[in-house]
Amino acid sequence: MSTSPASSLPARQQEAYADVFDQLLHCDRMLPAKELAGLLAISPKPIYSYVERNMIPYYRIEANIRFRASDVAEWLRDHSQSRFEFSARVNGALNRSAAYKWR
């Protein structure tokens, strides 16, 4: 059994989709939580936690949870922020709090 969602793609296309987002967008099958977690390089626990809190798009098939790869890719893009956006937000908050303390 394969562990990569891109494994349903021909070998040449797998190389072309080196980015996780691209692999998810071009995957044509439903992924179990364990496989999605492996692709994202995290434990399955947060995946199930997100499902419990309805934070991630998923499908329930009887007792099984499955994820459409393209839905997860869109969700990740919508909920991600770049390192630069984060540092700008943190620096802005630090500057505001420092200015407040010194007034």
**Averaged pLDDT, please?**
76
Q: What sort of overall outline do the alpha carbons produce when their principal axes are compared?
A: globular
Structural class: mainly alpha
Helix/strand order, N-terminal first:
HHEHHEEHH
**C-alpha end-to-end distance:** 63 Å
Classify the beta-strand content into a percent band: 5-15%
Q: Characterize the main sheet.
A: 3 strands, antiparallel
User: How much helix is in the residues?
Assistant: 55-70%
Number of domains: 1
Number of E-state strands: 3
Output the number of helix runs.
6
Give the low-confidence spans: 1-10
Q: What is the CA-based Rg, rounded?
A: 18 Å
Strand order of the largest sheet: 1-3-2
Structural description of this entry:
The chain is built from six helices and three strands, in the order ααβααββαα. With 103 residues, the protein is mainly alpha-helical. The chain has one domain (5-101). Strands 1-3-2 form a three-stranded antiparallel beta sheet. The relative contact order is 0.12. Residues 1-10 have low confidence and may be disordered.
Chain-wise SSE layout:
Layout: H1 11-16, H2 20-25, E1 30-32, H3 33-40, H4 44-52, E2 59-61, E3 64-68, H5 69-79, H6 83-101
Antiparallel strand pairs: 1-3, 2-3
Helix pairs in contact: 3-4
Short structural description:
The chain is mainly alpha-helical. The chain has helices spanning 11-16, 20-25, 33-40, 44-52, 69-79, 83-101; strands spanning 30-32, 59-61, 64-68. It has a three-stranded antiparallel sheet.
